[in-house]
Fold 3-deoxy-D-manno-octulosonate 8-phosphate phosphatase, YrbI family.
Amino acid sequence: MIRLFVMDVDGTLTDGGVSFDVSGTEAKRYHIQDGMGIKLLQARGVRVAFLSGRHSDSTSARARDLGVDLCVQGVSSKLPVLVSWAEEMGISSRQVAYMGDDLPDLECLRWCGFGVVPCDGRPEALREADYVTPSRAGFGAVRDACDRIILMNLREGEGRHQGL
């Protein structure tokens, strides 16, 4: 059963584009259905976390908006952070889902129990995926992942209750 869903932000939760206005203020676009997927997971007891290689005030704001209390940004090596979160929660790698799209995500995709990559992720990441979303990054890919995790958890829970 998945108990922690960790995702990269740029190229998964967003389409990877970053806009800057004339004063240098950064803006990103987030898909509302992705946010709903995150809220549905949280309502089912799955902890959600953002783990990004670059820092962005927009990511911090989106985390606050969605009640995502685990949000680490600006890390070059993501796996140690992911492993420490799992250890703090007392869960195994099999209980962790990770969503990423590019080279910095490969170690996490290999380590976790359920690796997710948006359909427009880099080929190297796609090769490591347990699940490739039908939707593109920033256009419902996170919702696809959340829906799949919910379904997996329901099936696993039903199997245990039925003695399967």
Summary: The domain at 4-161 is CATH 3.40.50.1000 (Rossmann fold). The helical segments are 32-43, 57-66, 79-89, 106-111, 123-128, 141-161. Residues 141-161 form the longest helix (21 residues).
